[in-house]
């Protein structure tokens, strides 16, 4: 079986007499031409779907008439079977006619005569024909030896002649496909991947290949083949709120565009050319070329996601043989509250209750993004059907899970794409609909607007330690172009939308203002740096005034400008642009100099009174959210207490979201805001007992933490982070005391490890403020170095701290050998 499309002849004109096609194939061509031109009496121009159906009817009428004339009848031992477009009932204007003449115990001379009389009229009429003459056993052998032929014959359909003969072929091919799929699956995947590599993604190509590109019609045929093998559904459910109408609608749209492409080009064509897009968009009543591009992006991404789900489902459903059949069932590994890993996918735990847990969507997605495991289609469908809306403002734990998702680098793109294709992302962020699949208006942009936003988020995650507010950086990256697709300046419109979104997410008013300003001014630094005189003080003052003299906002915009440029396309960010923006930012910082340093949190009087009584006290109280709690630890101030206290919390799966650590007299008073990783928090009495054991040396916190992390598969020094950790130093008004700020990514028990590292260096921590934002931590320690505040001492402390936080994978130089690891500070 070959390709289903080649050229045709549109120059022939004529009549179709009495609704019947005569035996000459020239009449077939004339009838096809009239269908394309809408030239038949009282027959207006057919729409794409009606045209395909009319072409199927036309070809079937000619073939059945010709077959009857040649004696291809029910008991003749001969049958004509259609594959390709006619077999699928998807006949396009200039599709190949792909036919098989089957015979059984028929005189070879008779078979040759029938074949000649069937094929030659079609050739003489210049109809592109892909043909073969075979017995059923011969056809089955071809299908078993040639994967492409097998895929073609899976679409076979009886046209005329001996129905039993056709059924033998169709049933035999499908039966052998089902029984042999285990040995052919890898070849099937390799063939698809090679095709994607050649043809690219339809959603992100200026001139996409509608047939062979990723997300195209060949991929829908791949899904059909997997369904015939009984490994998956041909039309997997994507949830009730799927944008664009789901896979069935995507299939129809791709067929409609390809049908009009044939009609416009006047010949077979798979690649949509830019110069044809406006005409095709108008013919389909979609709009201009940008509207057509948006429709294709939506359809192709829906198909791509469906193929990903189909291939994954099929791989898990493949029959096992030999020793593989004796393997134990896959273990369900806990990932988060109500979320587990099973058979290589993120799924819901058995006791999960989506109807009562609106934050479950984000926990599933963040677990997928962090682990790189795909979300089960069944899980997404269940969430789509059952999960309620998040109330406004969002609970803190839901916002934190969103930040974990956005901080996962490239993993966030796949996770959000899966949410979006199943309608869940639009439920969380309704404003996304205006930018979904929105094509760029200039050639510099590689991606659709929504994908550009996700690319920016990915780049920003690798820069999170450059800023003091990685949470706002992630959200600013997500929303900076959210105003596109609407009337007005997208920066102004987007700033207003960002205000509404920030309030919905539950941010403080000051953070909402910063987020809105990021969106409003995300182009300020690159536009000013590349178009104005930076030596002019008025230029710098204008930027400072627009940012209200806020150095934190300046820092965020500087980092966002780089992430935005890198996500736009090749060559948009370079040394020249980086140096200009860096110079502008440096000049603005000089004008903005004089920001306030962090200070210790005041300690509540009742805690001071309890500390005066001595002993070890642990209190646990509900916090502001459903999964938020406050743990207060009061104990005699001694070396290692902070490490022990934070370690005990981590051992009981309590993630520290923020902490305020101080000393009053001889007692340390530490307050932690925590969130349980699973279930309910432990009893305060149990935490106190464990802390007393740790203080006494009966519990090796560090060793148990290492074991737990290894069992959980969490991030450790041997695994990699998105962003390079940074340590920033600044002075205080107290001689010998310095502020040490660490910006890094989270890991199990990171605060305990940092405190132990400081203790090992002999650094006396006077107070500390710890904040976790998604997967990022910003920890500030006030360290008393006394007279030993030297560069060497600082370097030793910095090295010890960086040794216990996650770091990016070392870059490999061109010779392939690992290069030296560079630590930012």
From TrEMBL:
Entry-linked SMART domains: HDc (SM00471)
The enzyme's E.C. designation: 2.7.7.59, 3.1.4.-
Reactions listed under catalytic activity: [protein-PII]-uridylyl-L-tyrosine + H2O = [protein-PII]-L-tyrosine + UMP + H(+); [protein-PII]-L-tyrosine + UTP = [protein-PII]-uridylyl-L-tyrosine + diphosphate
A Pfam family of this chain: HD
Every HD domain range: 449-550
Swiss-Prot/TrEMBL cofactor(s): Mg(2+)
Region (Uridylyltransferase): 1-334
Gene3D superfamilies: Beta Polymerase, domain 2, cca-adding enzyme, domain 2
Activity regulation info: Uridylyltransferase (UTase) activity is inhibited by glutamine, while glutamine activates uridylyl-removing (UR) activity.
Assigned keywords, A-Z: Hydrolase, Magnesium, Multifunctional enzyme, Nucleotidyltransferase, Repeat, Transferase
Every ACT domain range: 630-706, 739-811
Membrane in keyword set: no
GO molecular function, one term: [protein-PII] uridylyltransferase activity
Entry comment, domain topic: Has four distinct domains: an N-terminal nucleotidyltransferase (NT) domain responsible for UTase activity, a central HD domain that encodes UR activity, and two C-terminal ACT domains that seem to have a role in glutamine sensing.
Function per UniProt: Modifies, by uridylylation and deuridylylation, the PII regulatory proteins (GlnB and homologs), in response to the nitrogen status of the cell that GlnD senses through the glutamine level. Under low glutamine levels, catalyzes the conversion of the PII proteins and UTP to PII-UMP and PPi, while under higher glutamine levels, GlnD hydrolyzes PII-UMP to PII and UMP (deuridylylation). Thus, controls uridylylation state and activity of the PII proteins, and plays an important role in the regulation of nitrogen metabolism.
Family the UniProt entry places it in: Belongs to the GlnD family.
Protein name in the entry: Bifunctional uridylyltransferase/uridylyl-removing enzyme
Organism: Nocardia suismassiliense
């Amino acid at each position: 079986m070959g390709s289903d499309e080649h050229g045709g002849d549109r120059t022939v004109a004529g009549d179709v007499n009495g609704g019947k096609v005569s035996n000459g194939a020239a009449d077939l061509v004339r009838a096809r031409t009239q269908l394309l031109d809408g030239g038949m009496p009282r027959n207006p121009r057919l729409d794409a779907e009606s045209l395909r159906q009319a072409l199927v009817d036309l070809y079937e009428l000619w073939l059945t008439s010709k077959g009857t004339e040649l004696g291809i009848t029910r008991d003749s031992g001969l049958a004509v079977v259609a594959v390709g477009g006619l077999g699928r009932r998807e006949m396009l204007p200039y599709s190949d006619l792909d036919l098989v003449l089957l015979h059984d115990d028929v005189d070879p001379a008779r078979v040759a005569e029938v074949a000649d009389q069937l094929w030659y009229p079609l050739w003489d009429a210049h109809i592109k024909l892909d043909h073969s003459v075979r017995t059923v056993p011969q056809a089955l052998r071809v299908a078993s030896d040639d994967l492409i032929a097998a895929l073609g014959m899976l679409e076979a359909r009886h046209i005329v002649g001996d129905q039993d003969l056709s059924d033998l072929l169709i049933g035999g091919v499908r039966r052998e496909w089902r029984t042999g799929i285990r040995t052919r699956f890898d070849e099937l995947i390799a063939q698809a991947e090679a095709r994607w590599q050649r043809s690219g993604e339809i959603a992100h190509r200026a001139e996409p290949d509608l047939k062979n590109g990723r997300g195209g019609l060949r991929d829908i045929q791949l899904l059909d083949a997997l369904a015939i093998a009984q490994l998956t559904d041909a039309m997997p459910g994507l949830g009730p709120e799927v944008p664009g109408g789901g896979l069935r609608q995507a299939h129809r749209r791709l067929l409609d565009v390809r049908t009009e492409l044939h009609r416009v080009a006047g010949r077979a064509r798979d690649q949509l050319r830019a110069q044809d897009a406006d005409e095709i968009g108008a013919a389909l009543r979609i709009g201009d070329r940008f509207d057509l591009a948006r429709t294709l992006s939506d359809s192709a991404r829906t198909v791509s996601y469906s193929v990903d789900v189909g291939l994954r489902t099929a791989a898990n459903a493949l029959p096992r043989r030999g020793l593989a059949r004796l393997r134990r069932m896959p273990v369900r590994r806990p990932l988060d509250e109500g979320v587990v890993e099973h058979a290589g996918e993120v799924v819901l735990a058995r006791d999960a209750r989506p109807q009562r847990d609106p934050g479950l969507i984000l926990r599933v997605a963040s677990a997928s993004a962090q682990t790189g495991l795909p979300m089960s289609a069944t899980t997404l469908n269940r969430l789509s059907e059952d999960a309620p809306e998040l109330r406004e403002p969002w609970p803190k734990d839901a916002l934190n899970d969103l930040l974990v998702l956005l901080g996962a680098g490239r993993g966030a793109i796949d996770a959000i794409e899966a949410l979006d294709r199943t309608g869940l992302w639009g439920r969380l962020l309704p404003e996304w609909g205006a930018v979904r699949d929105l094509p760029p208006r200039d050639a510099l942009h590689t991606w659709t607007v929504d994908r550009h936003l996700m690319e920016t988020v990915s780049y920003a995650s690798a820069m999170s330690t450059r800023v003091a507010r990685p949470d706002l950086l992630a959200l600013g990256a997500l929303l900076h172009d959210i105003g596109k697709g609407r009337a007005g300046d997208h920066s102004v419109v987007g700033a207003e939308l960002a205000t509404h979104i920030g309030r919905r997410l539950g941010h403080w008013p000051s953070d909402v203002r910063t987020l809105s300003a990021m969106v409003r001014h995300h182009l300020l630094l690159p536009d000013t740096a590349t178009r104005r005189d930076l030596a002019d003080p008025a230029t710098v003052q204008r930027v400072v005034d627009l940012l209200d003299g806020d150095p934190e906002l300046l820092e965020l915009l500087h980092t966002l400008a780089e992430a935005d440029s890198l996500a736009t396309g090749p060559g948009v960010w370079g040394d020249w642009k980086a140096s200009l923006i860096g110079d502008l930012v440096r000049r603005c910082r000089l004008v903005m100099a004089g920001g306030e340093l962090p200070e210790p949190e005041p300690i509540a009087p009742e805690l001071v009174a309890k500390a005066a009584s001595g002993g070890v006290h642990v209190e646990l109280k509900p916090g502001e959210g459903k999964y938020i709690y406050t743990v207060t630890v009061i104990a005699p101030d001694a070396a290692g207490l902070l490490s022990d206290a934070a370690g005990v919390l981590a051992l009981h799966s309590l993630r520290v979201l923020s902490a305020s650590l101080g000393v009053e007299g001889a007692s340390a008073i530490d307050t932690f805001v925590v969130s349980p990783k699973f279930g309910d928090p432990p009893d305060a009495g149990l935490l106190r007992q464990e802390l007393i054991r740790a203080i006494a040396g009966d519990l090796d916190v560090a060793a148990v933490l290492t074991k737990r992390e290894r069992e959980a598969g969490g991030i450790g020094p041997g695994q990699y982070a998105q962003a390079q950790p940074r340590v920033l130093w600044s002075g205080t008004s107290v001689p010998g005391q310095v502020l040490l700020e660490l910006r890094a990514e989270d890991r199990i028990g990171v605060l305990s490890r940092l405190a132990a590292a400081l203790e090992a260096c002999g650094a006396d921590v006077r107070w500390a403020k710890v904040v976790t934002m998604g997967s990022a931590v910003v920890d500030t320690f006030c360290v008393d170095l006394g007279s030993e505040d030297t560069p060497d001492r600082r370097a030793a402390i910095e090295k010890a701290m960086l040794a216990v936080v996650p770091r990016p994978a070392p870059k490999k130089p061109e010779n392939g050998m690992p290069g030296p690891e560079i630590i930012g500070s």
